[in-house]
Amino acid sequence: MIFAFLRIVGIVFYSVGILLSPLFNFFVDIKKRTLPKITSNLLNIPAIELAKQIRTQEVVYFIEILEIKMYLNQQIKSEQVVRAYIHRIKEVDPYLNAVVDDRFEEAIEDAKKVDLICSKAKDKDELMSKYPLLGVPFTVKEACGLKGMSQVIGNHYRKGMRCQEDSEVVKRVKSKGAIPLLVSANPEFCLSWETTSVVHGRCYNPYNMVRTSGGSSGGEGALNGSGASVFGVASDLSGSIRFPALFNGIFGHKPTGTLISIKGHFPCVRDPNFDKLLQIGPITRFAGDLPILMDIFAGEDAAKMPYSQVSELKDLNVFFCDHSWSFHHLPVHSDIRNSISKALDHFRRNGSTVQRLDIKEFDDSIGITYATLMTQERPPNALMDPKNPDKYVSPSKEMLKFFLRQSDHSFPAIFFHFMYELSENIPQSFLQHYLKEKKNMQDKLSLKLGTNGVLLYPTFHCPAFLHNTSAFQTMGTMYSGLFNMIGFPATHVPMGLNKNGLPIGFQVVAAPFQDRLCFQIAKELETSFGGWVPPS
Question: What CATH class is the domain 2-529?
Answer without folding.
Answer: alpha beta
